[in-house]
Amino acid sequence: MAEKQTAGRDNLGDFAPKFAELNDDVLFGEVWSREDKMSAHDRSLITVASLMTQGVPQLEAHMKIAKQHGVTKDEMVELITHLAFYTGWPKAWSAFGLAKQIYTD
């Protein structure tokens, strides 16, 4: 079962309480917990792919989550290599920098 998420409330609870609630309770509470429909492993691969194509800072956090969900170094390398041709070489280089750091810790 997915770990209880509190990042929304921790970071935005006082400033944007409804957004924090939706982040923690709906996105991570309801959607990510539907492991009978799709595993956390697969959701992590999809999420990392989406964030890599967008080039957003949340990529690092979700790569760490992916590792916790059992995504292997080889799977992450293959994902980034595959997406390099669709999302762009510079984004792949950036993603590899994060992955190398996360998977050698």
UniProtKB/TrEMBL annotation:
GO molecular function, one term: peroxiredoxin activity
SUPFAM superfamilies, A to Z: AhpD-like (SSF69118)
Coiled coil: none
One Pfam family cited in the UniProt record for this chain: CMD
Residue span, Carboxymuconolactone decarboxylase-like domain: 17-100
Superkingdom of origin organism: Bacteria
Name of the molecule in the record: Gamma-carboxymuconolactone decarboxylase subunit-like protein
